Amino acid sequence: MLSHYLKVAMRNLLRHKGYSAINITGLGVGLACCLVIALWVRFHLSFDNFQARGEQVHVLINKISISGTNPIRVHATSGPVGPALKADFPEIVDYARCYWLRESTPLKTGGKKFKLESACFTDPSFFDLFSFSLVAGDPASALSEPDNLVLTEETAQRLFGGEDPVGKVVDLPEWGNYRISGVLKNPPENSTLRFDALLPIHKSRLAWIDWDNNNAL
Q: Is the entire prediction scored with pTM above 0.85?
């Protein structure tokens, strides 16, 4: 019975080739579009799912009200907010502030010049809160010293090739000399936090550490 239906279907397809081609093409395009949309939705719903403590980590939103305009919410706040919240609310275990350098950061090593496209100043607790793995170095001490610098695998490969970068000193003309203390596995594509270098926040000498500035994430 099934073979009979298949034969009839094939005869109809061959008898009306143009009509059949339009229908089959439309069906294929429709299925392809559905598949692409499904993959796109799945990717965006998977953002930060790799974070082991994702249910416990929260982003602080700053509500800014300007006279004559509707309030806006931004993912930025003053640097001292983190320490103040931890001191005043015992349920807050820890915090990690992030200050992103908005422009490419020059870097010199071995007489060569490079640029870090996305550098971030952060607290040593960064590796306690977020599930970013080090392939070299100790996460407990990687950002503990003022002159520490953590690079991603991709950045380390670009700067040093196959050499072990840990312990090497690089010069960031705007910030001073840093010693590479770790190499980080490249952040996944579905990570909200994407960077090529992490630096200790206490050496940044940035104005945002004051209450009057709102640049910390």
A: no
